[in-house]
Design a protein that fits this description.
Elements lengths: L3 E6 L2 E8 L11 E10 L1 H17 L6 E2 L1 H14 L21 E8 L4 H9 L2 H7 L6 E9 L2 E9 L13 E9 L5 E3 L4 E3 H4 L4 E2 L2 E4 L7 E4 L4 E5 L5 E3 L4 E4 L3 E9 L2 E15 L5 E3 L3 E3 L9 E3 L7 E6 L5 E9 L3 E2 L1 E9 L12 E3 L3 E5 L7 E7 L8 E5 L6 E4 L7 E12 L2 E4 L6 E4 L2
Parallel strand pairs: 4-6, 10-18, 18-24, 20-25
Antiparallel strand pairs: 1-2, 2-5, 3-6, 3-8, 5-7, 6-7, 9-12, 11-16, 12-13, 14-17, 15-16, 17-18, 19-21, 22-23, 23-25, 26-27, 27-30, 28-29, 28-31, 31-32, 31-33
């Protein structure tokens, strides 16, 4: 006899299965190994035993005695239920093959968070209640496993007397379960979206799960070494023999995981590699340039990306000052980055001044070496600090002398010169030359 009951308990779907006699098993075939790491709670099993015997006492029945072999079988069955919630074992054999030959009945449950809840669930189900209150049963094993925060329970019954041996209270256990290939339904458990800027050259472990055929809400992770992992585009997502994925470039690729033991069992998952632009990744071909009245557009380069992955716009990039470059991602590239560059006037170099000369008509002649510019400014004064100085402009860049007239005889005059270039209505000056002086005749 077998029944299935579904009940919502603490946001978990609680299922119960009962087997009062050997049930028909699937034909045993090729299997796939699934390793379960769970927490085992023998103390909770003892609590279930006390509650079960209390129910039997109410019914006027003798108590059940714990049996160490049935107990181990029940723990195995609880662990196997994480992979296949059924009275048929994951390898296709009947549930009774997990225990001694005397095993005659089984109750299963999942989702109840404590012994009282699971016993209540069983007692509220006629078929499970019949197992618990079976007058011919004398011994019991009770399995209690917590896997990924979900509780799995089992009871194994027998007509023989239990040995009463108390099993060692174990905590962490590893249970190797063989699952029929025909029951294997694969599900992708890992990430499907990757950010290249954050995860570049970082290996990501692939995560593949097996859906519990008896309870679809439960998925057990499988060893990636059981699969051959391939990518439709290794430039986008690289695959490694150890089952890791490494983002390579933006785009999409399909990852296929085929079972090595049976390549007809395949899981295909589309993954997307995107990239969020970061300011430090953006390079400009220059950070400053010289004003010439034309728009300036430094070339933008981003390692790992092409010009098709982003658009570039420029602002305030004609006149002298700070220009702005805005880079916006396209498609699989997201984000916006702003960079700046300077537009500067072309300032003439510093002028090299020759020693000034003087003559009897009270003049001083300033002389300097040729400089590539539009003109010169001459400043002269009777003191080296150039207080109360006067200026003369030479508007011809090819002129290399200027006579300063109507000066006072016997006075020492200090002279310095600087070059300038004209930009529209603006004069852009170079540095002043070192001053030189002469006494006017």
């Amino acid at each position: 006899m077998k029944s299935i009951t579904k009940k919502l308990i603490t946001l978990l779907l609680a299922l119960t299965l009962v087997a009062a006699m050997p049930a028909a098993a699937f034909a045993v075939g090729e299997t796939v190994p699934v390793s379960i790491e769970a927490d085992r709670y023998d103390a909770a099993a003892w609590e279930v035993l006390e509650l079960v015997n209390a129910e039997r006492e109410k019914a006027g029945l003798h108590p059940l005695k714990l049996d160490s072999k049935l107990q181990e079988a029940a723990m195995v069955r609880a662990a196997e239920s994480t992979v296949y919630f059924s009275h048929t074992r994951p390898d296709g054999t009947g549930c009774w093959t997990a225990g001694p030959e005397s095993m005659a009945g089984e109750n299963l449950a999942v989702g109840q968070s404590n012994p009282q809840q699971v016993v209540n669930a069983w007692m509220n189900s006629p078929a499970h209640r019949a197992n618990i209150l079976h007058k011919d049963y004398n011994s019991i094993g009770i399995g209690c496993i917590n896997y990924n925060g979900i509780w799995f329970w089992s009871q194994a019954f027998a007509r023989t007397s239990g040995d009463g041996n108390i099993p060692e209270d174990k905590t962490a256990v590893q249970q190797d379960v063989n699952l029929l290939r025909g029951l294997l339904e694969l599900k992708w458990l890992g990430d499907t979206e990757f950010n290249l800027a954050e995860n570049e050259a970082v290996a990501h472990q692939i995560h593949i799960g097996a859906v519990n055929p008896g309870w679809e809400y439960m998925i057990t992770e499988m060893d990636p070494q059981l699969f051959t992992i391939l990518s439709t585009d290794e430039s986008v997502m690289k695959t490694a023999p150890d089952g890791t994925l490494i983002p390579g470039s933006v785009g999409t690729a399909t990852i296929t995981a085929s079972l090595k033991a049976d390549d007809s069992i395949i899981l295909a998952q589309k993954v997307q590699v995107s990239r969020k632009l970061k300011a430090e990744d953006v390079k400009l071909s220059y950070s400053s340039c010289t004003y010439n009245g034309k728009a300036k557009k430094p070339t933008v380069t981003i390692e790992g990306l092409t010009e098709d992955d982003y658009v570039v716009s420029y602002k305030n990039n004609v006149k002298v000052g700070t220009a702005t470059v805005t880079i916006t991602g396209v498609g699989d590239v997201s984000g916006t980055v702003t960079r700046t560059f300077k537009i500067n006037y072309d300032r003439p170099d510093q002028v090299s001044l020759k020693s000034p000369t003087t003559g009897k008509t009270h003049y001083v002649k300033a002389r300097w070496y040729d400089e590539d510019c539009d003109g010169y400014q001459i400043r002269y004064a009777t003191n080296s600090s150039f207080k109360n100085s006067k200026s003369i402009y030479v508007k011809d860049g090819d002129q290399l002398t200027r006579t300063i007239k109507n000066l006072k005889k016997g006075k020492r005059y200090y002279v310095k010169v600087r070059a300038y270039n004209n930009y529209e209505d603006t004069k852009v000056f170079g540095k002043w030359s070192k001053w030189k002086s002469v006494v006017c005749k």
